[in-house]
Amino acid sequence: MKANFPHIFVIHDLAHAFNLIMEAIIDQFPSETVKIITKISAHFSYSSQRKAKLLKIQKEMGFINTLEILRYKSIRWSSLQDCLDRIIALIQPLRSYFDKYGTSEEKNFLSRKNESYLKLLSCLLKKLYVYNNFFKMKNY
């Protein structure tokens, strides 16, 4: 069969293949985009005081269900998407937080330009995330 159809190849682990595609997408984005996600995640991961300040800002803004920033773990395939979606969901409270407590670099994390890159990356990753989860199931 391989002689008759040399362009066909077998992929045994489709979830892994989609993860490789996700990594290729990420490599095409400005490196600062993923660094922003990593830095925001790390900023809140190691400080209960920072988490409390962000929760307080959410309550002041009228959030009924407050959320925390998720920890980004590069070895987990879905971690980037999950962390990115949480940052996007909390973009206004995060802007307020960094305006009040952030350094000059942190205040620029969620500029309109960076927000656009974050939302575009999320949109692209979501498309692959669905397939990745589908192929991780045992009975596909």
What does this structure look like?
By secondary structure, this protein is mainly α. It has one domain (31-62, 70-136). 67% of the residues lie in helices and 0% in strands. Helix 1 runs antiparallel to helix 7. It is elongated, with a radius of gyration of 18 Å.
Largest sheet: none
Mean pLDDT: 87
Q: Topology as H/E string? A: HHHHHHH
Helix content: 55-70%
Spatial separation of the terminal alpha carbons: 24 Å
Total number of strands:
0
How many distinct domains?
A: 1
Gyration radius, in Å:
18 Å
Strand content: under 5%
Count of helical stretches: 7
Multimerization status: single chain
- Poorly predicted ranges (pLDDT <50, ≥5 residues)? none
Overall morphology = elongated
Structural class: mainly alpha
Question: What are its keywords?
Answer:
140 residues, 67% helix, mainly alpha, 7 helices, 0% strand
Layout of strands and helices, then pairs:
Blueprint: H1 14-28, H2 31-45, H3 48-60, H4 79-89, H5 91-101, H6 104-107, H7 112-136
Summarize this entry quickly:
Helix content is 67%, strand content 0%.
